Amino acid sequence: MASLLFAGCNSDLMQVDPIQESILEEGLNISQFDLSEITEMTDFSNMRQGDFTGRFLILSKGQSLPNNLESSIQNAGGEIVKTYPEIGVAVAVARSADFHTKASSISGIESITPDLILQYTEEPNLVGPETTLDAARARQSVETSAIGTPFNYKTALFDGWQWAPASINAPKAWDAGVTGKGVRVAVIDGGFHSTHIDLAPNLDIANSISTVPGFNFNQDIGTFWHGTHVAGIVAASGFGVVGIAPKATIIGVKSLHNGSGAFEWILDGILYAATPLSQGGGGAQIINMSLGATIDYRNNWQDPAFRVFFRELQKTYDRATRYATQNGVTVIASAGNGATNYDDAKELFKLPAQNQHVLSISSTGPTGWVFGNTNFSQPAYYTDFGKSLVDFAAPGGTVGLAIVEGNYSPCTLIGTYRTATNTCAVFDQVFSTVRGTTNGNYNWAQGTSMASPALAGVVALMMEVNGGNMTPAQVRAKLSQTATDLGKPGNDEYYGRGFVDAAKAAGVN
């Protein structure tokens, strides 16, 4: 029986058992499916892992689509419903029973693969009461007019609750007036709470989109909303909490619903975000993807057809991330939460963290911050690692105090304006925006999903200082030069090229 491992953004607040990557236990053997019976999916409100959408991704042999592709697909009994000529990919649906067989032999086509619904993120099980910001009492942060004018982050209502920004020296950059202002960061994720008091000031609503059929970019399920938490880590404006780049512009790209999504939706999101505004795209300079799936090519794949299937989808994503790079867009992704060494587990491939030109980020976090412990760069117990996977490390939080050390005792966190009592380990996580029930709700979460947007925020700070013009190669080089070299000298399994430093990356001494 073929199995598929899911990873990337399983951001959990707390659980008794160690975090494990979810396993899709249904047999996803392509030979068991009659492709002639796959109808196009139209209702995505009750998606199930392993469902086929009824749409097929067509990958051309070259970078351009064949000139006669539309007529060839029609002759094979299908219909082209979408094209991505910039990367040589098209999307088709079947109109006859033998479409897949006939279309596979079309000249100029490398592959035609059925698209699949996967679970890319999971909404965490919240521990303790959700923390709500009273908008009427929110303190206004000082507007930044130019680099050099300090950003007053200490007026945030939850000042004193966030260890993550200080762990990478972000306040030093803010004191120098470096806030990411003018830099555009696309967050490809789930739904975005567009009226949240900390997101609304920085959210480009006009250019935020949903690639999930039937849903707007500001819709999702539950009260956490993974995309909302991630967006706050990048650029919360400082009313309640402060994002790493508190004046950066967020482009919300909803490509998942309730954590699930099709390959096509994420592909659509990458290409939209990486396309300039003048060409109808999102005009991003940075793309953050706190999402992912782990493909096991060796141990759990008995059917060769499935290996081919996912390799072709991997190539499709490579073309998308290469397109982003060619457009000058830096692509960042979470490394995953399976506590797996990818140098040893060579049969595994992490999508999209290991795709071409993607910066893959591992997670760190303290153990007992409320006790005064400042080991912020300690690798989180759940983070995936390996030189073949990790490029850099950033704060993603951890409840290792409870899970690893067994300490479930309560603690009180005393902030500048607010106090909270909860299990001590809760406060070692990352505090950020959530959907909640109002326009001002916040909560904690842990995961490489939280580390990836922290680095995205750092890159936004760098870009502001450099006038917004930094190629992905320049970004990688600057991060490598300024990150703190921890672990083994040079490229390390847990830290890659180092633990990121926001102030140094932004040129602030």
From TrEMBL:
<protein>
    <recommendedName>
        <fullName>Peptidase S8/S53 domain-containing protein</fullName>
    </recommendedName>
</protein>
<dbReference type="InterPro" id="IPR022398">
    <property type="entry name" value="Peptidase_S8_His-AS"/>
</dbReference>
<feature type="active site" description="Charge relay system">
    <location>
        <position position="449"/>
    </location>
</feature>
<dbReference type="Pfam" id="PF00082">
    <property type="entry name" value="Peptidase_S8"/>
</dbReference>
<dbReference type="GO" id="GO:0004252">
    <property type="term" value="F:serine-type endopeptidase activity"/>
</dbReference>
<dbReference type="InterPro" id="IPR036852">
    <property type="entry name" value="Peptidase_S8/S53_dom_sf"/>
</dbReference>
<keyword id="KW-0720">Serine protease</keyword>
<keyword id="KW-0378">Hydrolase</keyword>
<dbReference type="InterPro" id="IPR000209">
    <property type="entry name" value="Peptidase_S8/S53_dom"/>
</dbReference>
<dbReference type="InterPro" id="IPR050131">
    <property type="entry name" value="Peptidase_S8_subtilisin-like"/>
</dbReference>
<feature type="active site" description="Charge relay system">
    <location>
        <position position="189"/>
    </location>
</feature>
<comment type="similarity">
    <text>Belongs to the peptidase S8 family.</text>
</comment>
<feature type="domain" description="Peptidase S8/S53">
    <location>
        <begin position="180"/>
        <end position="498"/>
    </location>
</feature>
<keyword id="KW-0645">Protease</keyword>
<dbReference type="GO" id="GO:0006508">
    <property type="term" value="P:proteolysis"/>
</dbReference>
<feature type="active site" description="Charge relay system">
    <location>
        <position position="226"/>
    </location>
</feature>
<dbReference type="InterPro" id="IPR015500">
    <property type="entry name" value="Peptidase_S8_subtilisin-rel"/>
</dbReference>
